[in-house]
Amino acid sequence: MLSASDTGASPHFTCRAPGAKAFSNCDSSDILGLVQISLANKSAIVTGAGRGIGRAIAETLAKAGASVLLTDIDEPALVEAKAAIEAAAPGAKLSTIAGDVTAPKFPEAVVAQAIKDFGGLAIIVNNAGYTWDSVIQKTTDEQFQAMLDIHVVAPFRLLRAAAPWLRETAKKEAEAGKIVMRKVVNITSISGLGGNAGQSGYSSGKAAIVGLTKTIAKEWGRYNVTVNAVAFGIIDTRLTRPMENAETKIAIGEREVQVGMQSQVREQVERSIPLGRMGTPEDAANSVLFFCSPLSDYVTGEVLVCGGGVHF
């Protein structure tokens, strides 16, 4: 079993034989069976955890033994996600806090609740995000700023809020001769790495989070915190579903934002993916799990692309 306790002890690695199960067909439960990854005694924050990729990440971490604070702007979705994860991961310790992660003071409340509920903080996953697309001549200031606010300003504020506790805790551990690894995983996109027509705001926000990731990796290495990013390709969520689906009209505060893809474009993009299919939220969560686990203890400041081989 690969353990990740806060005791500071070296992790032990044990893999069970995969038998006939193909790795390509694994969901998060299968992965955790093939390679035992334990996040017992670890506590995590996952933003945007009410649905889609965020919910899958929270469930995957909970199944690995982590205590997880789920945050989302959509409180009913958050309640539903918590109930579903409790059913999928019996005994998991979960907490929730509803609110707008782009509100200036909300990230401080999130960090305070995680420390209050779990006694510490080991993993931060900055996942919350959405698309609001237009060609540049039709993109408003509000639209462009909203993409920066959700994809880089909110993660910046959350990490800044966590910094005092992380720094002081690491210093005390060092004085006691302990090394405890902690993890930050920021979510970016292949749009942020290569750009994408019609997504000047989204691509800019997702490119900016890469810069933040690499900078904080250099600042926090001394505190035994790894900071990495996962760039998603086309993952099957409401952000990539056909626009005619009702779920692609989402409420962001008082705004209604159209997300999703035109059906013809969606089909063309799916055909361009070398692995022949869109990713699932579980595929996305598995890549995040790597950066949350001891398997990545000597990896920091990096970007992992989870996109089935597609690049823009």
Integer count of domains: 1
Looking at CATH, which topology would you report? Rossmann fold
Question: Main β-sheet: number of strands, strand sense, barrel status?
Answer: 7 strands, parallel
Number of helices: 9
Give the overall form: globular
Give me the side-by-side strand order of the main sheet: 3-2-1-4-5-6-9
* CATH level 4 superfamily: NAD(P)-binding Rossmann-like Domain
The CATH architecture designation is: 3-Layer(aba) Sandwich
Oligomer: single chain
- Rg over C-alpha atoms, rounded to the nearest angstrom: 19 Å
> Gap between N and C termini, in Å?
38 Å
CATH class: Alpha Beta
Q: Work out the strand percent.
A: 15-25%
**pLDDT averaged over residues:** 91
Structural class, please? alpha/beta
What is the share of helical residues? 40-55%
Structural account:
- Residues 1-24 have low confidence and may be disordered.
- It is built from nine helices and nine strands.
- The protein is globular, with a radius of gyration of 19 Å.
- α2 (52-63) packs parallel to α3, α4 (106-118) runs parallel beside α5 and α5 (141-175) runs parallel beside α7 (200-220).
- The protein has helices spanning 28-34, 52-63, 75-88, 106-118, 141-175, 190-194, 200-220, 263-272, 281-292; strands at residues 43-47, 67-72, 94-98, 123-126, 182-189, 225-232, 249-252, 255-258, 303-306.
- 41% of the residues lie in helices and 15% in strands.
- It is of the alpha/beta class and 312 residues long.
- β4 (123-126), α5 (141-175) and β5 form a beta-alpha-beta unit.
- A seven-stranded parallel β-sheet has the order 3-2-1-4-5-6-9, sandwiched between helices. A two-stranded antiparallel ribbon has the order 7-8.
- The protein has a single domain, classed as Rossmann fold.
